[in-house]
Amino acid sequence: MATAAGAPHGAAVDEARVQEFLERVITDGGAAVAGLCTSLGDRLGLYTAMAGAGPLTSAQLAARTGLVERYVREWLAAQVAGEYLTYAPDTDTYELPDEHAAVLADPESPTYAAGFFGILQAVFATEDSLMDAFRTGEGVGWEEHSPALFAGTAKFFRPGYAAALVPEWLTALDGVVEKLERGAEVADVGCGYGYSTTLMAQAFPRSHFHGFDFHRPSVEAARDLVTEQGLEDRVSFEVATAQDFPGGDFDLITFFDCLHDIGDPGGALHHAEQALADGGTCMIVEPNASANAQENVNPVGRALTASSVAVCLPSALAQHGPQALGNHAGEEALREIADDAGLHHWRLAAESPVNRVYAVGR
Description:
The chain is an alpha/beta fold. It has helices at about 15-45, 45-50, 60-65, 70-80, 100-105, 115-120, 120-125, 125-135, 145-170, 175-180, 195-205, 215-230, 265-275, 300-320, 330-340; strands at about 85-90, 95, 185-190, 210-215, 235-240, 250-255, 275-285, 345-350, 355-360.
């Protein structure tokens, strides 16, 4: 009788369950490799070229994209196997359904998710560093990753921010939209490439926005974005940490998907409390994941918790601060940190499948 590794001697193994789990692991392995193909399709413009084009042969797609047909044909086969594309054998043509194009081909769509796959290049490249970190307890800093992580993270979060930040999240904060319409001072802490900052600036032309991030290449990318959009008179970006960003009397201070990456989140919120104007608000946007591991047994929870292993926790530990949260510390832990920092008013203001938005104040 077969026994499971680590099981009591003589314990029987349910072979059907073994096979079922084996199939799942093989499926996951295939999805991991297929993710590279998805990233290639996004970066090479293959999905964009197929969107709305109807059935195409591999030669036609290669001509549309300026790519080599033999590689394109191989990529198409992988996409059919993953059911991302449909295939008509009688005409030897491939088609991207409109519903799939909304997810893979349109960066302006709120359902666009292809940006996530660009992150894979960076996270897989740090596997050896993560092995060392597991053994030593040291971190892997954000800046130690390749630029694919910075660009991919910005690209992934942008559609969700574009869809919800102004019409849903800000309107869920008591009195904040009215202040922004009259003219307010806003600090966007951990601004990254500046998408969140500029989305707010475009919506509220009477307000001034100040983006801060410790990562200089991201700040430089954000400055380029401001120049491109012609917002230099109302938007600025500076290299600064969450614990020492300059300025004060901010009507709104935002943390978009970054508080859990900070090695001293309490210090960051304490500094924010000091920098708030009277009656000011902190908006803390965090991943929609639970401190209860069982509650994360869903596709979003799986992606978020895996990202925490690969990026979030190591980034926080690399800062040698007093607290490394990971991205699923949960609302209770975050609320306690805010309360200790002098931010005693806490409210869940909005929620999406990926994010939870908290309104926090003195």
